[in-house]
Design brief:
The protein has 422 residues and is of the alpha+beta class. 71% of the residues lie in helices and 11% in strands. It has a five-stranded mixed β-sheet with strand order 1-2-3-7-6, covered by helices on one side. A hairpin with a 2-residue loop joins strand 6 and strand 7. It starts with a helix and ends with a strand.
């Protein structure tokens, strides 16, 4: 039976060393595999010399000196890192509890003794090792690419358990004697770890939420840029077409004048003038980007039978980027246009009133539009259950907050009012 116990000790040594190597992010070349195998053989040989030549009880007490520290040194040489090999060894030591508890469960069920426990541990060793290497090791290895503070957090629980196990079970009998502090220590560690995990996960979720919101804003900026480019391209194409057709227009007008058809020539001139006026960018203010946005939405409002009135005094240079201004105005006007279209579908007139000006380095914007009576506000911000809606409002809020500004939303008497100060 002593042989079985010795074989079990050998198997747990191989289990821990192999798992430690699997947890390390090492490119296993033939040379490194041979070096790791030689290191494991030397460690096991040294254990055997002490076990049979000195005292078997000493092996367990000096196990960190003859196994864990040499193993960490070997892995440091192969991995060319210092922290992660130590974390890998501590994590592998923690995983050794899987085979121990599985064996204890078998002993409890079949009322066996220490021999049955050795046999159960020996039988469970390599199946558990294969499962851990295949399914768990890749995830553990990925942590080695994290920043050093996160690696330390990952190794904290294995390190605490390692110290607890040696201090209360091997070097002392505190756990066996039922000392309350020793009995309650690991449950305390579990509770603290759980609370830390909850706080950390909550913070990670908030960061992820902000990143997703930023991504949505970037997508909107890209969409807006694409729309602006399309408008400019369309205007350029029409200008090229007018330039190309100008010769034909002049020939036709010259022919009308030569034949005394002055009214027909005047009507033709008026027709060309109307086409040019319909496609020009209206100058609402000095800011070119704002003019493009206002002109584009004014045409869309007119096409939908919506009255849009713009009063704008925006200088060429304002205290915010041109991209943010375009996204801010586009989202605000898009929401106003959408609300007015819904009113038009109900047979009611839609009106959009825009007032924007710059004063003492601050930009003030007010947009009033027709709306229904079913607008819900949550903490002063419009909310909706419709799929795909609500992103524009979040983008507006994000941009205003980015510049430390103030925004207010209000609804009542069939009107929706957005006021912004940046």
């Amino acid at each position: 039976m002593i042989i079985i116990h010795w074989i079990n000790l050998t198997s747990v040594g191989i289990f821990g060393m192999a798992l430690s190597a699997a947890f390390c992010n090492i490119l296993w070349t033939r040379k490194k595999v041979l070096a790791m195998s030689a290191g494991m053989a030397v460690i096991l040989l040294f254990q055997g010399i002490i076990y049979f030549g000195v005292d078997s009880n000493i092996v367990e007490r000096i196990y960190p000196l003859i196994t864990h520290i040499p193993l960490i040194v070997v892995l440091c040489i192969l991995n060319r890192k210092c922290l992660w090999p130590a974390v890998s060894v501590l994590t592998a030591y923690l995983c050794c509890q899987l085979r121990r508890w599985l064996a204890l469960l078998v002993v409890a069920i079949f009322s066996g003794g220490s021999v049955m426990q050795d046999i159960a541990e020996l039988a469970a060793t390599f199946p558990i090792l294969l499962i851990l290497i295949k399914f768990i090791a890749p995830a553990v290895r990925s942590v080695s690419d994290y920043p050093i503070p996160l690696q330390c957090q990952f190794g904290l629980v294995p390190a605490l358990y390692y110290g607890f196990d040696y201090l209360t079970r091997i070097y002392t009998d505190l756990l066996l004697e039922g000392v309350l502090a020793a009995v309650e220590f690991m449950p305390f560690v579990c509770s603290v770890t759980y609370l830390f995990y909850v706080v950390h996960s909550s913070e990670e979720w908030r960061i992820r939420s902000r990143l997703e919101q930023t991504q949505e804003i970037l997508n909107l900026q890209i969409e807006q840029a694409v729309r602006e480019i399309a408008v400019l391209r369309e205007s350029q194409e029409k200008t090229s077409a007018y330039r190309h057709d100008m010769r034909h227009h002049m020939q036709y007008l010259s022919s009308c004048i030569e034949n005394g058809q002055l009214k027909q020539a005047q009507g033709y001139i008026q027709e060309i003038y109307s086409e040019i006026e319909a496609n020009k960018v209206t100058v609402f203010c000095e800011n070119e980007a704002a003019n493009l946005i206002f002109s584009a939405f004014a045409r869309r409002a007119e096409d939908n039978g919506i009255l849009m009135q713009v009063g704008a005094r925006i200088p060429r240079v304002i205290p915010m980027s041109e991209t943010d201004l375009c996204v801010l105005l586009s989202n605000a006007l898009e929401n106003a246009l959408h609300a007015c279209r819904e009113q038009g579908e109900k047979g009611q007139a839609g009106v959009i009133e825009v007032s924007v000006y710059e004063k003492k380095g601050k930009l003030f914007l007010q947009i009033i539009n027709s709306c229904g009576e079913d607008i819900a506000l949550n903490d002063g911000i419009p909310v909706t259950n419709k799929s795909g809606h609500g992103i524009g409002v979040r983008s507006i809020c994000a941009i205003v907050e980015k510049y430390g500004g103030i925004y207010t939303f209000s609804a009542g008497d069939g009107r929706f009012i957005l006021r912004i100060s940046i």
